[in-house]
Amino acid sequence: MATTAPRAGPRIMALDTADPTEDSWTMGSLPAAGFLRLGAPVLGMAAVGALVQAWATRRDERQYPPPGVLVDIGGHRLHLDVRGEGPRPTVVLEAGMGSFSPNWYWVQSELAPALRVVAYDRAGLGWSERGTAPRDADTLAVELHTALQAAGVPGPYVLAGHSFGGLPVRAFAQRYPGETAGLVLVDASNPDQWVRWPVRNADRMIVASQRVTAVLARVGLLRLVDLSRAISAGLPDRPAAQLRARSALPGTSAVEADQMAAWPTSRAQLVSDLGALPLVVLGVTEQPRGAETLTALQIELTGLSTRSVRRVVQGATHESLVARREHALAVVAAIRAVVADDLESLPDPILPVGTPTPGGRAAAG
After folding, report:
1. Judging by DSSP bridges, how do beta strands 77-83 and 69-72 pair with one another?
2. Which of 279, 346, 350, 364 would you call most buried, defined as having the most Cβ atoms within 10 angstroms of its Cβ?
3. 69-345 in CATH: which number?
């Protein structure tokens, strides 16, 4: 992103009677005493905030222990929440940029009675430990595969990726084609998103803001706001509280920044041809920003496979597609269609449960 040199401001000049040896303290800056008066309270508040953050983190760890298991993948552990004992294929749920397993509450709860369903947390998010490798799509796919094998969860797999999660599930399908039975891209990101976004260098701005947010989290300021509100609105109280608690950790924003910074690498890794892999591309109607660009990018995703369909969920937003039950049921239907290898069974468009149809009947769940 192009920058301009900061404009010089007025200099605070010392009086003629000032000691020349003190020029470095008084010329062009506040007096040293002023710095001390300003700096001491700021440092004090930061120290108090850091203590509050440490206390709140310990409290949250007691209140919200990992709902699943921690699996060692060589150097760090990933959290897998495995539910259901149904026949294969196994369903794997990949959350969005800074989100993690509780976000899939509705989808996992609906599918688990008949299928084995894995909701997991990428390294550094949720309850998973942070790794040292770059956060590009291929690395994330390898880590997921290693965790599934270590947990004794065999394939084949149907993978559903929401938002940024669409990149690692595509990388997984590329690297492990014999173990991938199908994909569901849940309002998923197109790798070309940031090179075609209307605002230039938006990705770099996001990385910078996430780095700043990670610093603010260290001094407890994220405890004052709920950054998870958008992705948790519509979830039951406990998964919503889990999302809020773990989102307030400094590592969450730091990992988001790492994933965004690795986006160009991920884009270069992903191919545009997945053969005849069963694929459902789900979109939404409510897009407050960049609707035209996002719709075009979504439509292009159907070209990844010769056996693909695209469906739009009426009334859904990017976040509500997984967080609100009436919209999440459309994701459930898409996953079931891929599992059954019956893509054309999905209605077009998909109406939320209870929505009156033209015939006067409510859409069924």
Report:
1. antiparallel
2. 279
3. 3.40.50.1820
